[in-house]
Design a protein that fits this description.
Elements (H helix, E strand, L loop, with lengths): L1 H18 L3 H13 L7 H7 L3 H10 L12 H19 L4 H6 L7 H4 L6 H18 L4 H9 L2 H11 L2 H16 L1 H7 L3 H20 L3 H14 L3 H10 L10 H4 L3 H14 L44
Helix pairs in contact: 1-2, 2-5, 3-5, 4-5, 5-8, 8-11, 9-12, 10-11, 10-13, 11-14, 13-14, 14-17
InterPro entries: ARM-like (IPR011989), ARM-type_fold (IPR016024), CNOT9 (IPR007216)
Family: Belongs to the CNOT9 family.
Pfam families: Rcd1
Length: about 325
């Protein structure tokens, strides 16, 4: 009996995937499949390897582009697009579909949503769900993913959202930056030039100021983790000995972090580390991303402080 129920469940799921290619059935299929994302282990495989399915999801996403500027997006259209994005997030998160997902440059389809500034809930929902696609990629401990995100100019997009978004979108954007920095390629890229480093440091400092007025333990934890990871670069370490916001040093956030021992531990670890001597060995050589493999997915813009030539030497971070 249990196997029979399982077989029926799989048949229904497969039928829903097939329904994505039928315009009149797609809306319901998007809703139902979105509900199954957390319980189906192989949904990503069915979505990626079934004929025409990814094209149908992209059609849903592209169809709302004209409503982004000027902002005329209807809530119903935004919901359908978000359901399509949620299914793409499933594909991005799966270890067997992540690499072909990147090679097909599918993530570039979310960038128009990240570039929006509309304050309506429908726009914010699209931004957060789009960030979720990139966040699913960033979770993977994969240098290929990090290089893709760096060359796609994801960091500038995330920094803008970290400065102007809602608490949720700020949290997801900061998480993505944190995960990029977790990889050595990402950290070296961020710390390769003083312009790039201080751009990120400025955004983080402004977030700390805002958090003193409207505390968010979850967001603050990600900010602290970004600072902590930056201290692993000798040049950034030296700069942060004088540039770390005072409110992180003087106990301002003790109440905010009281119920999150891990976040409190990260903050204490950061303060202890900055109290010690700096390392004398900066990362050698040029930015490995700027001089690495060909760009797998050109982003919405080229150049900028994150794509320029690297400079080395601790003095550049003073």
């Amino acid at each position: 009996m249990a196997q029979a129920v399982k077989d029926i469940k799989m048949t229904l799921e497969e039928q829903l995937v097939l329904n994505l290619c039928e315009s009149e059935l797609r809306g319901n299929a998007l809703v139902e499949l979105s509900k199954k994302r957390e319980t189906s282990n192989d949904l990503a495989l069915k979505l990626w390897y079934s004929f025409g399915t990814i094209a149908a999801l992209l059609q849903e996403i592209v169809s709302v582009y004209p409503a982004l500027s000027p902002p005329t997006l209807l809530a119903s259209a935004a919901t359908r697009a978000c359901n399509a994005l949620a299914l793409l997030q499933t594909v991005a998160a799966h270890p067997l579909t992540r690499t072909p997902f990147l090679k097909a440059r599918i993530p570039i389809f979310v960038f128009p949503f990240l570039n929006t500034t509309g304050e309506a809930k429908s726009f914010e929902h699209l931004r957060v769900t789009s960030l979720g696609v990139l966040g699913a990629l960033a979770k993977a401990k994969d240098t290929k993913v990090v290089k893709f995100l760096l060359k796609s100019e994801v960091i500038p997009l995330c920094l803008r959202i970290m400065g102007t978004g809602s608490e949720l979108s700020k949290t997801v954007a900061t998480f993505i930056v944190q995960k990029i920095m977790r990889d050595e390629v990402g950290l070296q890229h961020i710390c390769a030039t003083p312009e790039c480093f201080f751009q990120i440091a400025s955004v983080l400092a402004n977030m700390v100021i805002a958090l003193t007025e409207q505390p968010s333990t979850r967001l603050l934890k990600h900010v602290i983790c970004c600072y902590l990871r930056l201290t692993d670069d000798p040049r950034a370490y030296t700069a942060m000995q004088t540039h770390l916001p005072e409110s992180l040093r003087n106990g301002t956030f003790d109440n905010c972090l009281r119920d999150d021992p891990a976040a409190m531990h990260f903050l204490q670890q950061l303060l202890d580390k900055l109290a010690g001597p700096a390392s004398v060995d900066p990362h050698p050589g040029p930015d490995p991303v700027a001089g690495g493999a060909p760009d797998p997915a050109p982003g919405p813009g080229t150049g900028g402080s994150h794509g320029g030539p690297s400079q080395t030497g601790p003095s550049h971070m003073h």
